[in-house]
Automatic annotation (TrEMBL):
<feature type="domain" description="Rhodanese">
    <location>
        <begin position="174"/>
        <end position="287"/>
    </location>
</feature>
<feature type="domain" description="Rhodanese">
    <location>
        <begin position="40"/>
        <end position="143"/>
    </location>
</feature>
<dbReference type="Pfam" id="PF00581">
    <property type="entry name" value="Rhodanese"/>
</dbReference>
<dbReference type="InterPro" id="IPR001763">
    <property type="entry name" value="Rhodanese-like_dom"/>
</dbReference>
<keyword id="KW-0808">Transferase</keyword>
<protein>
    <submittedName>
        <fullName>Rhodanese-like domain-containing protein</fullName>
    </submittedName>
</protein>
<keyword id="KW-0677">Repeat</keyword>
<dbReference type="InterPro" id="IPR001307">
    <property type="entry name" value="Thiosulphate_STrfase_CS"/>
</dbReference>
<dbReference type="InterPro" id="IPR036873">
    <property type="entry name" value="Rhodanese-like_dom_sf"/>
</dbReference>
<dbReference type="InterPro" id="IPR045078">
    <property type="entry name" value="TST/MPST-like"/>
</dbReference>
Length: 288
């Protein structure tokens, strides 16, 4: 690399200037359904990748290759050694510089960022604006299936405890000690729209900070950091606040966590099971 390795956000211009760098590992991590540029109907994310992706990018299967498929919940994170091995199979080794983007919501990209940072891997950044901004700027795209990067030696994971589990969240509900941040839409937060397992509402005591509200509609870039800082501060969140962010499956919540990290907050975690785990147990309370 001709510049220091990125650690949070990179611009479309930065990426365009570094596409040929041999250390770069560029991934589209979109899961579920997405729209191809100019499309009108959602399709499976891998099919959308094959229709249009940033030149040199590979598709990273977050659900099947980077999650524990034996777990009861989708997108459950792998144990550290298994996670490092999965990333190595995708071509991410100790010397790689990873840039990840999405063709839909940011959460897919920030989930990969969060997973790598939880393992102590810092040479990873999210593309500001994702594919939408890249295409809006008239930059070139490629199509077709792409072979994976060559497997790399696995890096040694160093656990960072960026995730919270159910007992920790239950303890907060019972006794406080952290701010629970719901990253879903206002309708999900209020209970107007049913969540996982047909139950509506939020974990008791939560505040609402929808992940979608952190993004500028004009070009899909994140809002300026000073604006985001003010929005979190208005909710009572300072760098001294212990935060646990959650959503439906631990995806959208990583954008809230990512923004807080970009703002210099160190005391933030993501509830991995989120409402998919919490609402599965009818004895767990929900507010609406």
């Amino acid at each position: 690399m001709t510049e220091p390795a990125p650690s949070l956000l990179v611009s479309t211009q930065w990426l365009a200037e570094h596409l040929a760098d041999p250390e770069l590992r560029l991934f589209d991590a979109t899961a579920g359904a997405a729209l191809a540029p100019g499309g009108s109907q959602a399709e499976p994310a891998r099919a959308v990748f094959e229709k249009a992706h940033i030149p040199g990018a590979r598709y990273l299967d977050l659900k099947n290759d980077l999650s524990d498929t034996s777990a009861a919940l989708d997108f459950t994170r792998l144990p550290p050694e298994a996670a490092a091995a999965a990333f190595a199979r995708a071509g991410v080794g100790p010397g790689a510089v990873v840039v990840v983007y999405s063709t839909s919501t940011y959460g897919w990209a920030t989930r990969v960022w969060w997973l790598l940072n939880d393992l102590g891997f810092r040479r990873v950044a999210v593309l500001d604006g994702g594919l939408a901004k890249w295409v809006k700027e008239g930059r070139p795209t490629a199509n077709g299936a792409q072979p994976p990067y060559p497997p790399a030696p696995a890096f040694t994971p160093v656990a960072q405890r960026l995730f919270a589990d159910l007992p920790e969240v239950a303890a907060v509900v019972e006794a406080g000690g952290a701010t629970l941040v719901n990253a879903l839409s206002p309708d999900h937060f209020s209970g107007a729209v049913a969540g996982p397992h047909g139950r509506s509402g939020r974990i008791p005591g939560s505040i609402s900070l929808p992940a979608g509200s952190l993004v500028a509609a004009a070009d899909n870039s994140l809002k300026p950091l000073e604006v985001l800082k003010a929005e979190f501060a208005a909710k009572g969140i300072s760098p001294e606040t212990d935060v646990i962010a959650y959503c439906g499956s631990g995806i959208a919540a990583t954008l809230d966590g990512f923004v807080l990290k970009a703002l210099g907050h160190d005391r933030v975690r993501v509830y991995d099971g989120s409402l998919s785990e919490w609402s599965k147990d009818p004895q767990r309370p929900l507010e609406a």
